[in-house]
């Protein structure tokens, strides 16, 4: 059962989030019956599983809710804000109960009691008494019953086949209850030319000696009670079949059946011990059903009919394993390619090329499997926006676009916090209050749009609001005050706006619950940078702001540019490379303020030779300068030689190297040596940072 | 020849539980995720029993029963409904549509097998 329970956990988490979304939609369209139906349906599925897999508390709560929504569905109750609020807080609590099924933790206990109480209030107001009353699982008490002979008339409707019922099975079930005989009655069968083979004309008289009480005998008919005539009458207290002197022929004839039965019943029974009789009836009761089902258990060839289900669920561990194996394969394949290059052999070359092609395809396929739609994340924001808009008393519309855009699941998980933060900022600081909006001539409802789309090997995520925008002057003043920039620094708009990501800068006049103290945009940038992504902001006063996050599709394998410095090889992520230039080494050395003019523009540069303390005597005459860009900024990185493109499997560097400035990881090359992956983001930040201070 | 049972349920965990239980007793199981999906299986292949959830998206259990009864080949096959206690009224509707019987959720695996055996002997 445990593995099912696990599955239920995953499923229930999904159901709960679906339920939450359905409720939010319902809140907007409270009269939409199909939405009520949807809410009800999800609750119901949740409840069904909860009961099956041992989540009694969830079953209990969803049961109460279901009752309420059942009334709404039947138009006996309107969807009120109160009901929705209680439902939503119940939904939150359900998530907690998934991990604390018994409701043992103090906080959950409190919540449970509170929610039950809230539901109670609603229920009392609408006057259903049944809703929160403790449900008792009806369990019929088995009353021990003295054995008796019963006469059962079982007359199925002629249409009974249409329900998939085989009346013979019922007869069999009845006979299995004890010692008995069945007599088929054929009087209803019409002449042959009138027979309809799809109708049932036969009925039965049965005589059964059993210890089963009448109620349980009737249970046999439970599925078909309204599709047949049934009569169960007690005849006498002894087993007539024990007496060999009965004439079955007289029972077989419907005309003599009744009179003969009366006659037999009036005979005194021979003395027999009750025990013996009971034992016998029990025995036949147990074996009656099983005997005829042997062929069901016959393990023949499993029937070959597998229908493709559009998706399957795979444990994320397995996907991670797969990705690791693919990474290993990519590395090994690089080794093979290198070997084949060094040892010219026609056939080896063909193999090597094919394997390279297959590896690439396998890599892409495996990647696509780890991608999940970003909607998983976006849907959560709906709830956030609802709660925040209530809290701030602002009317807010959340528009979601491109939710189907797929990203690596680890990236999506890591994005939750930063996006949440940006969103809160937009809601709190970006969007104005209603009166402010109206006087500015705007729609009184503020709109926040979250959109995602692909661009090359990147995914762009935008959070856009139509609020008051970011006041550049305010930021500038603040930054000067905090000493982030000098008084006379000339910054363009993008640079000023970019300062909101600087540590310790907050422009909010008021600190609120919703978006906190304004610390955090720097943390947001850090989180995004850790994902090898970049974050940009643009804003126009009075019109609104947009924050854009640009992320790589995946984290584990990148296309890189392999370069060399002395004897060490480095990888620069290809996506940040703008252009490569070749310069005389002398030109750089004479340069004092670390700026080089390329294509008519001044670009700050970093000489890796200098940074890594390389031996000056080994410097080549020509130096390669690779221009990389990030966040509107460009920096040149100087190396000795450019080797070429390389598919790099990223491996983290050991913990002793975590705090250094330039390296974000390592990769194994085809010949088994190691190349370090340059962290261009940090390099850019550093060089530019120094520039600003230097100015 | 082991019997083939088509199950329809939108809850994955229930689907798995039911199919694993049935398979462990030697039945062949076909799985569908909602009512519409279930009806796509009625394409001429042999199905001995259908077990369907009542509450499903797209097409509910009652719709499934109706769909089955409309087809000449499947007119008389047994259809069991998986219901919860709270849906007594729907039970009637399902029966009217032609359901053979029902299994009440939550159910024990043995009970399920007993009922299945009963209708399939």
UniProtKB/TrEMBL annotation, chain A:
<keyword id="KW-0547">Nucleotide-binding</keyword>
<dbReference type="GO" id="GO:0004673">
    <property type="term" value="F:protein histidine kinase activity"/>
</dbReference>
<dbReference type="Pfam" id="PF02895">
    <property type="entry name" value="H-kinase_dim"/>
</dbReference>
<dbReference type="Pfam" id="PF01627">
    <property type="entry name" value="Hpt"/>
</dbReference>
<dbReference type="InterPro" id="IPR036890">
    <property type="entry name" value="HATPase_C_sf"/>
</dbReference>
<keyword id="KW-0808">Transferase</keyword>
<dbReference type="InterPro" id="IPR036061">
    <property type="entry name" value="CheW-like_dom_sf"/>
</dbReference>
<dbReference type="Pfam" id="PF02518">
    <property type="entry name" value="HATPase_c"/>
</dbReference>
<comment type="function">
    <text>Involved in the transmission of sensory signals from the chemoreceptors to the flagellar motors. CheA is autophosphorylated; it can transfer its phosphate group to either CheB or CheY.</text>
</comment>
<keyword id="KW-0902">Two-component regulatory system</keyword>
<dbReference type="InterPro" id="IPR002545">
    <property type="entry name" value="CheW-lke_dom"/>
</dbReference>
<feature type="modified residue" description="Phosphohistidine">
    <location>
        <position position="44"/>
    </location>
</feature>
<dbReference type="InterPro" id="IPR036097">
    <property type="entry name" value="HisK_dim/P_sf"/>
</dbReference>
<dbReference type="InterPro" id="IPR004358">
    <property type="entry name" value="Sig_transdc_His_kin-like_C"/>
</dbReference>
<dbReference type="Pfam" id="PF01584">
    <property type="entry name" value="CheW"/>
</dbReference>
<feature type="domain" description="HPt">
    <location>
        <begin position="1"/>
        <end position="101"/>
    </location>
</feature>
<feature type="domain" description="Histidine kinase">
    <location>
        <begin position="324"/>
        <end position="555"/>
    </location>
</feature>
<dbReference type="InterPro" id="IPR004105">
    <property type="entry name" value="CheA-like_dim"/>
</dbReference>
<dbReference type="InterPro" id="IPR051315">
    <property type="entry name" value="Bact_Chemotaxis_CheA"/>
</dbReference>
<keyword id="KW-0067">ATP-binding</keyword>
<feature type="domain" description="CheW-like">
    <location>
        <begin position="557"/>
        <end position="689"/>
    </location>
</feature>
<keyword id="KW-0145">Chemotaxis</keyword>
UniProtKB/TrEMBL annotation, chain B:
<dbReference type="Pfam" id="PF00072">
    <property type="entry name" value="Response_reg"/>
</dbReference>
<dbReference type="InterPro" id="IPR011006">
    <property type="entry name" value="CheY-like_superfamily"/>
</dbReference>
<feature type="domain" description="Response regulatory">
    <location>
        <begin position="4"/>
        <end position="120"/>
    </location>
</feature>
<dbReference type="InterPro" id="IPR001789">
    <property type="entry name" value="Sig_transdc_resp-reg_receiver"/>
</dbReference>
<feature type="modified residue" description="4-aspartylphosphate">
    <location>
        <position position="53"/>
    </location>
</feature>
<dbReference type="InterPro" id="IPR050595">
    <property type="entry name" value="Bact_response_regulator"/>
</dbReference>
<protein>
    <submittedName>
        <fullName>Response regulator</fullName>
    </submittedName>
</protein>
<keyword id="KW-0597">Phosphoprotein</keyword>
């Amino acid at each position: 059962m445990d593995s099912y329970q696990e599955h239920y956990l995953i499923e229930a988490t999904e159901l709960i989030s679906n339920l939450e979304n359905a409720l939010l939609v319902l809140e907007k369209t409270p009269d939409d019956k199909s939405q009520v139906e949807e809410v009800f349906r999800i609750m119901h599925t949740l409840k069904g599983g909860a009961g099956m897999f041992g989540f009694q508390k969830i079953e209990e709560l969803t049961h109460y809710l279901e009752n309420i929504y059942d009334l709404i569905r039947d138009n006996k109750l309107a969807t009120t804000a109160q009901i929705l609020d209680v439902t939503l807080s119940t939904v939150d609590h359900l998530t907690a109960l998934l991990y604390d099924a018994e409701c043992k933790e103090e906080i959950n206990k409190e919540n449970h009691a509170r929610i039950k109480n809230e539901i109670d209030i609603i229920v009392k107001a609408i006057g259903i008494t049944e809703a929160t009353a403790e449900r008792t699982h009806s369990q019929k008490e088995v009353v021990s019953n003295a054995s008796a002979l019963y006469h059962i008339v079982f007359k199925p409707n002629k249409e009974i086949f249409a329900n998939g019922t085989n009346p013979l099975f019922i007869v069999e079930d009845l006979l299995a209850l004890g010692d008995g005989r069945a007599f088929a009655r054929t009087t209803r069968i019409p002449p042959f030319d009138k027979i309809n083979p799809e109708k049932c004309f036969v009925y039965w008289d049965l005589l059964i000696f059993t210890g089963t009480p009448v109620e349980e005998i009737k249970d046999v008919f439970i599925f078909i009670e309204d599709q047949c005539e049934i009569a169960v009458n007690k005849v006498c207290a002894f087993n007539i079949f024990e007496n060999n002197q009965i004439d079955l022929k007289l029972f077989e004839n419907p005309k003599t059946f009744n009179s003969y039965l009366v006659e037999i019943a009036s005979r005194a029974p021979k003395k027999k011990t009750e025990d013996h009789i009971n034992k016998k009836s029990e025995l036949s009761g147990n074996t009656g059903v099983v005997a005829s089902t042997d062929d069901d258990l016959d393990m023949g060839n499993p029937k070959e009919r597998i229908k493709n289900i559009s998706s399957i669920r795979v444990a994320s561990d397995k996907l991670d394993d797969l990705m690791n194996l693919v990474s290993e394969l990519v590395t090994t394949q690089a080794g093979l390619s290198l070997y084949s290059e060094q040892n010219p052999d026609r056939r080896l070359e063909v193999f090597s090329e094919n394997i390279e092609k297959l590896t690439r395809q396998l890599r892409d396929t495996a990647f696509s499997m780890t991608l999940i739609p970003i909607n998983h994340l976006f849907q959560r924001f709906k709830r956030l926006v609802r709660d925040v808009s209530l809290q701030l008393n602002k009317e807010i519309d959340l528009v979601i676009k491109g939710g189907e855009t797929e990203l690596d699941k680890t990236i999506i998980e890591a994005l939750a916090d930063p996006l949440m933060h940006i969103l809160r900022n937009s809601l709190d600081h970006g969007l104005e209050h209603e009166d402010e909006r109206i006087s500015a001539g705007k729609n009184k409802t503020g709109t926040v749009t979250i959109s995602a789309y692909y661009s090359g090997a990147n995914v762009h995520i935008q959070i856009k609001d139509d609020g008051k925008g970011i006041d550049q002057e305010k930021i500038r003043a603040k930054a000067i005050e905090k000493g982030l920039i000098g008084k006379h620094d000339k910054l363009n708009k993008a640079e000023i706006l970019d300062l909101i990501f600087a540590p310790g800068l907050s422009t909010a006049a008021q600190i609120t619950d919703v978006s906190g103290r304004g610390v955090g945009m720097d943390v947001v940038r850090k989180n995004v940078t850790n994902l090898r992504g970049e974050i940009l902001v643009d804003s126009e006063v009075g019109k609104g702001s947009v924050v854009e996050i640009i992320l790589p599709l995946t984290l584990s394998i990148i296309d890189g540019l392999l370069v060399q410095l002395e004897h060490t090889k480095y990888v620069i992520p290809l996506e940040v490379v703008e252009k490569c230039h070749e310069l005389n080494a002398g030109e750089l050395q004479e340069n004092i303020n670390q700026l080089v003019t390329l294509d008519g523009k001044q670009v700050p540069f970093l000489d890796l030779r200098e940074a890594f303390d390389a031996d000056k005597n080994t410097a080549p005459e020509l130096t390669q300068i690779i221009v990389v860009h990030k966040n509107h900024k460009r920096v040149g990185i100087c190396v000795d030689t450019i080797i070429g493109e390389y598919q790099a499997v990223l491996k983290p560097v050991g913990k002793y190297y975590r705090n250094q400035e330039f390296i974000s990881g390592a990769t194994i090359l085809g010949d088994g040596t190691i190349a370090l992956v340059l962290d261009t983001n940090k390099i850019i930040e550093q060089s530019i940072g120094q520039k600003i201070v230097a100015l | 020849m082991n019997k083939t049972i088509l199950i329809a349920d939108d809850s994955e965990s229930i689907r798995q539980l039911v199919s694993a239980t049935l398979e462990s007793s030697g039945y062949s199981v076909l799985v569908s995720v909602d009512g519409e999906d279930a009806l796509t299986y009625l394409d001429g292949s042999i199905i001995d029993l259908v077990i369907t959830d009542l509450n499903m998206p797209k097409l509910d259990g009652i719709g499934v029963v109706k769909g089955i009864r409309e087809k000449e080949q499947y007119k008389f096959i047994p259809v069991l409904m998986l219901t919860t206690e709270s849906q007594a009224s729907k039970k009637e509707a399902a029966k009217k549509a032609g359901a053979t019987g029902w299994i009440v959720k939550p159910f024990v695996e043995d009970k399920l097998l007993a009922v299945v055996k009963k209708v399939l002997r």
